[in-house]
């Protein structure tokens, strides 16, 4: 019995991992060790056996092994990938695979011998270029220091952010890409929320359509003055290693442009001195402040007054410096209110409206030496955004005029504003209306979608400003794998009514084509809207598919662990039923309940091998990529600045992408760069094929893949040029010839270009961006609006 259970394992210890082979992963060591193991062998036993065989016990350490795992067996062809073994549980995968793949009797492992200290000798993992059938897996003799091979946690290419050839989007990652702010900002008892002092007037307005450079890492007084906080001689500019030693005192006669600037100077001086002061008198003509210890050993006092004739503020009396000791031993300071913080963070917010509260809080603490509360910095950021992009509340009332203005600028623009009534004492106030929803799209986007792939991704993302809400986006993709938002909606949140509002207008104005695929998450509101009898989204008019990122996220809520999640995603990405069954069997061996969970979802909704080619290889909604690349920062803006930003950002995108496509057409290119790269990769891997023709019309073939010497077959695939299908699954999934179809075209002496979907033609890509945007008409020339004042719903205030 023991002899039946025991088997040999080849352990390579001087080679590396190679993936650019027809069999997938390959180990290059030609002189491996043979280690006898059995199903009861533990991971520590295997490590000990390898080191003893090498005579390196005590001199080397093993951190992990890399297993050349079989992933698909088609007839006499075996494809391999690479699996990391670092525990007893991982080792059981090897035993399981040996039972499931009797064709592979001798497992292979890779171990690089290393000293018990850090070394630069590591297995080299070469990124895959060819479209492999599935994932990847291999042994690292290391002590854990500088674990370079940690990246070989290899699963399908798509899981590592490098999609297989022909797939335009990555798979896993956070759906929300930014530093998410909480919906409820906790109260800050130490903050002057109800302060009556006027707001600081800092900086001017902005269109909100500029490109945002990276965050500033440090700011000084000069930067603040450039934003409009320029006093003639303020007393808080000097800082040195001694803290307050270099501070400049106020001078009688010192002038400030307005009261806000004067208050900012006094507060910042107090913060720098680490002392507290109290306001004795403050109105529209004078301001008097005294040290909190005034009359108790300190005589510090400042009196400022308005010089009416010049409209400036001036120091009339000053008793300084402080004669008391610095009394602030707290980590916060009373004078460091959100007005002061807003003036400081203004340049950062102007540069990038999406800068996180954590970044602003840390910058404020580093600059002032005190750490304010999260809520105070959040309020400071909202104030800074309002000063740059417009008042949060007034922004809602600007929307009706923007609708009129943008429709005058670009006739054909669709902008549909919905409001709800305001009730005062039970009566409807006709002079006001709450903002409810807004749908908008522009004529270039409507025309662009006609030349994109016949699919649309829909998703929602939260707003991060003073008022909550959700931005719904419909995203298309051109034949060069560029993502393009084609419609937007601002709604109260994701529910059946808001999704119905968005999808009905999307269908009516942007995507009326039959047979369209909609990729989304599993939100019940989307389901209800798509299944509405009169919505136009039911088959065969349209079809639905799930974003695998969201499916995997839902799966992880029930089943913990990254490995199980990756197995599910691998199964979803499989382009053939054989490959899908392989991953599903492994998932079942982990926990049958996982397969039961997945089986509750129709395979056509989440797997690629059952989608009938409608996905074009796209498995996610691309919402994160769209927000990061095109709409960065807009979720942090007041609503009117947000919708203006979509116009400006898209106008810039159309110019840039349109020029790129036009330049490629000028060089005589027929297809997009993306398609050309995929075809070149497939041609590179279609050299050792034997093609057999099966009909007179040159349309039905078999392709036998062999080794370069022709001595070993790697598999046989049926190819139909007439129906544009191949047993490998790539031809029908991606709508351009796979390596086997290319071999058939070469055999029949026909051009492969006739089997490429028209969306990949460079002329189609150019037509996506052919219609440009019109420069916006200045707001002063917008038509007047005489309807009720649109105001934000106070229930949506964050």
From TrEMBL:
InterPro entries: MULE_transposase_dom (IPR018289), Transposase_MuDR (IPR004332), Znf_PMZ (IPR006564), Znf_SWIM (IPR007527). One of its GO terms (molecular function) is zinc ion binding. Keywords: Metal-binding, Zinc, Zinc-finger. Residues 717-749 form the SWIM-type domain. The keyword S-adenosyl-L-methionine does not apply. Pfam families: DBD_Tnp_Mut, MULE, SWIM. Coiled coil: none annotated. The keyword Transmembrane helix does not apply. This is SWIM-type domain-containing protein. The lineage of its organism: Eukaryota, Viridiplantae, Streptophyta, Embryophyta, Tracheophyta.
